[in-house]
Amino acid sequence: MLLSAVGGCATSKPVATVGQLAPELAGTAIDGRAVSLSSLRGHPVLVNFWASWCVPCTREFPLLLERYNADHQAEGLEIVGVLWNDSPGPARDFMMNHSASWPSLPDPDGSAKATYQAVAPPQSYFIDRKGVILSRQIGELTAADLDRQLAAILR
After folding, report:
1. CB neighbours of 136 closer than 8 A, spacing ≥ 6?
2. How do residues 7-23 score in pLDDT, each as one tens digit?
3. Can you give the CATH number for the domain in which 37 is found?
4. What residue numbers bound the domain in which 54 lies?
């Protein structure tokens, strides 16, 4: 199960805001790994909301994200996927078919989607080494988008 919460008042829900610390994303990825965004502090992080049935996701996923993941691994880049209205089985098959190596968290209750104000897949957040959201992009990432967005968080 995916949990998304950060400290603060128990009655208020965190909201992902550019310029602020990224709200926690934590849980068990579809490949069985334990994942928590807070444990990645010190690394640049790309959080990507995606689905195996989403046509733009299927284009950006293997062509851009996996290539950029490999290209920037030495710089500490971490990618965390969050499933958008998708079942773990089809998503796991899609990731295996594309040799994707990053974890993807299920979001069965939509709490991560709500916290990150994800309006449609794909949607990506670019988080710096301090855990601050520097930018978000709604829609398919191109190579030019990734070059520009990653330059800011890889510093």
Report:
1. 16, 18, 123, 124, 125, 126
2. 333 445 789 999 999 99
3. 3.40.30.10
4. 26-153
Q: String of b and e for 105-121 (b: at least 16 CB within 10 Å)?
A: bbbeeebbbebbebeeb
pTM value is 0.89
Residues 85, 88: Cα–Cα separation, whole Å: 10
Burial class of residue 42 (count of CB atoms within 10 Å of its CB; 0-12, 13-18, 19+): exposed
Q: In whole angstroms, how far apart are CA 61 and each of 52, 66, 102?
A: 9, 7, 11
Quick: pLDDT tens for 42-62.
Answer: 999 999 999 999 999 988 887
- Residues 19, 133 contacting (CB under 8 angstroms): yes
